[in-house]
Fold this protein.
Amino acid sequence: MSNISYLNRLDKEHAAKHIAGIFDSKDNLYKFSSYETAVIVLGSMSLKYGPLTQMNDITERDKYVINSSPYNYTRSFFPDEEAERKANDATKTAKNFVSHLCQLCFSVDPSYKKSFNYRMYNCLPLWGNYSKNGEGVCFVFDKNKIKEKIEEQKAKQIFHVDGMIKYDTTNLIKVNSDELSSFIGNEEKCAEYCRRVFFHKSEDWSYENEYRILAERKTDKDLFLNIDGCIKCIIIYRNNHNSVIGDGKYKVLEKLVNGSFPILLYKVEYTDQSCSEQENKLYLPLDDNQSSILVMPYSED
């Protein structure tokens, strides 16, 4: 049992406190995935950057390159051939740049809400949207270690920019080719431009509380981030925590994790017979001969 192997390295009497301490940190990054993707991630200890064309926000996915050169839209002509050539070159350069951008998206705990219930693994829409309706996994990463891995990987990318998404009405859907092409080659200005264009989303997505890493690939090959040593724990969702012990998918996860970090069980329990009130709990499931340990909400009693 992976969790028993992990538990054997701890003082069992203080195991719940130790694991609950994971969620006291302000530097947790949460990433929800399907079970199949989780197996690939754990097997390779890497995350694949996704292309912008696969974003689920259609205003982000459909960002397109425009040109603000002195084109006469009423009479449909450029003032001269040189202006047209420069405009076409700028558009081509900008489109090539955007095609090489890729991203990793995470969620973070709201800084203004410290209650257990506002930890992001309690966000049911995230389980539903990104984890195949709760059948997948929630990874909990150490943000600082993720950033260290990015620095180690600089040779594989031209630049990267990271930060929180802003949910506001300035959600831009266009990339200005003249402006962007003038920045290419200047890492600082290019990164700042990307922050202005690719770090705004509609308020409809604010429940995700997204932290994003945007990078430019040096080649057309997929970009991967090494995450060895970055995972604090993984969380699975089940209605009955006793059922995970003999579950085939759980056994696969146990084998891949091999006691390196805990596999926790997220459960929504109803506190009365009418099912009108519910309580969110995290358990450390053990084998059939040992009771699972309640981790969150944590109590000293």
